[in-house]
């Protein structure tokens, strides 16, 4: 079952092969060292004025941080995300100490997570980003400063067979990966 993107021209293999699974191998765990390179990649992401508005809180399966994050998951995410080796809260510093808004905080955070996901995939891990979580509960649980917001959670771990998931998740895991055509995405003048 290939999950590799079908592209109009070859792209870097890590970008083509990265995808977001829901089936994680619960017999394997992760350590801080396993994620260091991915967090270095996230750290070296560009940001507006180099403000680096991102922060991450990491829980490993079996620890209390992981359980706190898992308790905030919503809907179907509760059925698969807690099988990952780690759950990570993504945090944006939405304003500075003077109370001025960091207008690009979400943009820069997302780009940092993208860097993480590509490095993780290169290192044999799989990342799945999750918006279905209670961000207010995360902010409260981790006592975030007023000007920091929890934005998403992402899972990271080792891939397991799709058939280990309950339906309808197993079927979704095998569904073709699709994207809007490049011609409907990139324009060289007015739309
Ligand atoms: C910001 C963001 C939030 C997402 N939230 C969820 C989610 O709550 N649950 C889920 O199963 N997938 C979630 N996804 C995963 C997307 O559905 C997935 O990336 C998309 O379908 C493309 O699939 P691919 O990453 O395998 O190419 C999210 C992705 C992003 C970037």
How would you describe this structure to a colleague?
With 191 residues, the chain is of the alpha+beta class. Helices cover 31% and strands 16% of the residues. It has helices at residues 13-17, 32-43, 64-70, 77-80, 105-122, 135-141, 169-174; strands spanning 54-60, 86-93, 126-130, 148-157. The longest helix has 18 residues, at 105-122. The structure holds flavin mononucleotide. Flavin mononucleotide is lined by residues 19-20, 77, 128-132, 152, 177.
Task: Write a short abstract of this structure.
The protein is of the alpha+beta class.
Features:
191 residues, alpha+beta, four-stranded antiparallel β-sheet, 16% strand, globular, binds flavin mononucleotide
Largest sheet: 4 strands, antiparallel
- Give the N-to-C terminal Cα separation: 37 Å
Q: What is the CATH C level class, in words?
A: Alpha Beta
Q: What is the averaged pLDDT score?
A: 97
Number of helices: 7
Fraction of residues in helix? 25-40%
Class inferred from helices and paired strands: alpha+beta
Domain tally: 1
In percent terms, what proportion of residues is strand? 15-25%
The CATH H-level superfamily is NADH Oxidase
In the predicted model, the low-confidence regions spanning at least 5 consecutive residues are none
SSE order in H/E notation?
HHEHHEHEHEH
Rg over CA atoms: 17 Å
């Amino acid at each position: 079952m290939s999950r590799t993107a079908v592209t109009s021209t070859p792209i870097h293999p890590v970008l083509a092969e990265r995808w977001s699974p829901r089936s994680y191998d619960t017999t394997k765990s992760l350590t801080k060292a396993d994620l260091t390179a991915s967090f270095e990649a996230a750290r070296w992401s560009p940001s507006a004025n180099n403000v680096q508005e991102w922060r991450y809180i990491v829980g490993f399966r079996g620890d209390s941080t992981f359980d706190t994050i898992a308790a905030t998951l919503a809907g179907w995410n509760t059925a698969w995300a807690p099988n990952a080796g780690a759950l990570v809260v993504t945090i944006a510093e939405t304003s500075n100490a003077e109370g001025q808004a960091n207008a690009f905080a979400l943009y820069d955070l997302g780009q940092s997570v993208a860097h993480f996901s590509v490095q993780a995939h290169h290192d044999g891990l799989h990342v799945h980003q999750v918006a279905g979580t209670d961000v207010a509960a995360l902010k409260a649980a981790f006592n975030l400063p007023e000007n920091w917001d929890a934005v998403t959670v992402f899972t990271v771990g080792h891939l397991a067979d799709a058939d280990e998931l309950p339906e309808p998740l197993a079927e979704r895991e095998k569904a073709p990966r699709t994207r809007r055509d490049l011609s409907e995405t990139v324009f060289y003048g007015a739309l």
